[in-house]
Amino acid sequence: MDLNDTPPLGLRETKKRETRQLISDHATRLFIERGFEHTTIAEIADAARVAKKTVTNYFPRKEDLALDHQDEFVAALAATVAARGAGETPLSALRHAFLAAVAAQDPVAGFAGEAFTRMIADSPTLTACLRGLHDRREEALAAALAGATGTPPDDIAPRTAAALLGGVHRVLFARIQELTLSGHANPEIAEVLAREAPRAFDLLTPALAEYGRRA
Fold first, then answer.
1. Pairwise CA distance, residues 24 & 2, whole Å
2. Residue 41 exposed, middle or buried by CB count within 10 Å (0-12, 13-18, 19+)
3. Model's pTM, two decimal places?
4. HEC per residue, the chain
5. Exposure string for 48-64, b = 16+ CB within 10 A, e = fewer
6. Per-residue pLDDT of the chain (215 residues; tens, 9 = 90+)
């Protein structure tokens, strides 16, 4: 082959992203229409007009097709702690980040719409997978807190702090899901969470007000 016929890397990467998004979009549509448990990889491949192998190359597990932003979800809390400003504590940084996500009605924070949220709630597989993602996010947060405070990764303090902070995020994520499944629209849910989230974070203040403050 003439080297001049080889597409630039940028074009190849663009095509790969487009194919990945196409598969994801068709998978989400089918999962919502038929239910996650009743949709097969072969049906997704047919809908996207790609080979079944192409689907599994982009998404090794069926759950990956439904929860497409799981890496971002798992890393979010740890990344917020790592990026906190001078004089800021992890509690403060995570509080501000969550309220910003609520204001933006961020899907990663739980603002996924009723159809998608119901798809997850109706699937035992996805419900279990979501619990696992919360666990992984908490573990990543514990590692970030250990690094921020100069303590060993297995030290009880960062693990406990991560459990407290991760627990608040679990509760608030579940609250968004609950309101979504009750038929509330995202702007209405955001108004409720803007009132309730500060109260939830305030409960951690006595324990974590000074923990991990960046010099």
1. 34
2. middle
3. 0.89
4. CCHHHCCCHHHHHHHHHHHHHHHHHHHHHHHHHHCCCCCCHHHHHHHHCCCHHHHHHHCCCHHHHHCCCHHHHHHHHHHHHHCCCCCCCHHHHHHHHHHHHHHHCCHHHCCCCHHHHHHHHCCHHHHHHHHHHHHHHHHHHHHHHHHHHCCCCCCHHHHHHHHHHHHHHHHHHHHHHHHHHCCCCHHHHHHHHHHHHHHHHHCCHHHHCCCCCCC
5. bebeeeebeebbeebbb
6. 444 555 556 888 888 899 999 999 999 999 999 999 999 999 999 999 999 999 999 999 999 999 988 999 999 999 999 999 999 999 999 999 999 999 999 999 999 999 999 999 999 999 999 999 999 999 999 999 999 999 998 899 999 999 999 999 999 999 999 999 999 999 999 999 999 999 999 999 999 999 999 87
